[in-house]
Design brief:
304 residues, TIM Barrel, globular
């Protein structure tokens, strides 16, 4: 598959046509899960910029989650480190019993001693405890996609992945994913277990993981870009490097820069599963509306 997936002529969103994440098409996770190719990253519903503590408005946080499902989102990404633990609990409070077909992906392997600290812990015993905790908080018997949140420099990644493979054999994990892995680390992980997805930082202005994305497209893994909108970018602000091209394209389509950035990700590769996150229903609806934007081959070349 080529690095860029050309798409047909732009189809502008019409007010008479309901927005839905299904407009982005679908992607398969492993052999047995199919989800709409625009998901929701739930990190921002926990407390504040540091993702620490309770949300300022818990009712609104639950409303965002329910509205996402109403808009056709059937892939929600979270982690035990968000809150910590609060994010998973909010998802359960808002959505359990879960609608048929909803995939909740979570992560373990990072601990939060304090608000500013994100410390990798890939010890097998910790990962076993972390998975059990996520199962309890989410009220699940099996987690559809459980991801190692980061490589722990003190633990060989083969040991960490091996612990997840054991949990998979026990029926507690359906599919294994990895996060914040470089290309060599992904290759090493795949020698220990079947890896279904990779979640790395990736957006229009930050493309360091392009080699990992290309491997995913070639080998049938899902690539989940975290921070699909450049970090610190407000919903109506600049996108960082190359923002002039994005802004010009957004003006020509009558949409926001953020929506064009999401549309670019969807067009970049069929392996891509963007998970834009927000704590606002309004911004959620704007993000989902981007699923219907189709960029032409010429527009994609301009943004390459």
């Amino acid at each position: 598959m080529g690095a860029l997936m050309t798409a047909s002529k732009l189809v502008q969103a019409s007010s008479s046509k309901p927005q839905s994440a299904a407009s982005a098409g679908t992607v398969r996770i492993g052999d047995d899960l199919s989800v709409n190719r625009l998901g929701f990253g739930a990190m921002r519903i926990a407390g504040g910029d540091q993702i620490w503590g309770e949300p300022q408005d818990a009712a609104e946080a639950r409303h965002v989650l329910r509205r996402a499902v109403e808009l056709g989102v059937n892939f929600i990404d979270t982690a035990d480190a968000y809150g910590p633990e609060i994010n998973e609990r909010l998802i359960c409070e808002a959505l359990h019993p879960y609608p048929r077909g909803l995939v909740i992906a979570t992560k373990g392997g990072i601990v939060r001693p304090s608000a500013p600290e994100w410390v990798a812990n890939g010890h097998p015993e910790h990962l076993r405890e972390a998975c059990e905790g996520s199962l309890r908080r989410l009220k699940l018997e099996r987690i559809d996609l459980y991801q190692l949140h980061a490589v722990d420099g003190q633990v060989p990644l083969e040991e960490s992945i091996g612990a997840l493979a054991d949990l998979q054999k026990q029926g507690k994990i359906r599919h294994i994913g990895v996060s914040n892995f470089d290309l060599d680390e992904v290759v090493r992980a795949r020698k220990v277990a079947r890896i279904a997805s990779v979640q790395n930082r990736y957006n229009f202005s930050q493309r360091k993981s392009s080699d990992v994305l290309d491997l995913c497209a070639r080998e049938g893994l899902v690539f989940i870009p975290w921070a699909p909108i450049a970090h610190g970018t407000p919903q109506t602000g600049r996108q960082g490097t190359g923002s002039t091209d994005l802004e010009a394209l957004a003006r020509s389509h009558g949409v926001s820069v953020v929506q064009i950035a999401i549309a670019w990700l969807l067009a970049r590769s069929p392996a891509m599963l963007p998970i834009p996150g927000t704590s606002s229903v309004t911004h959620l609806e704007q993000n989902v509306a981007a699923a219907r934007i189709r960029l032409t081959g010429e527009e994609l070349r301009r943004l390459a």
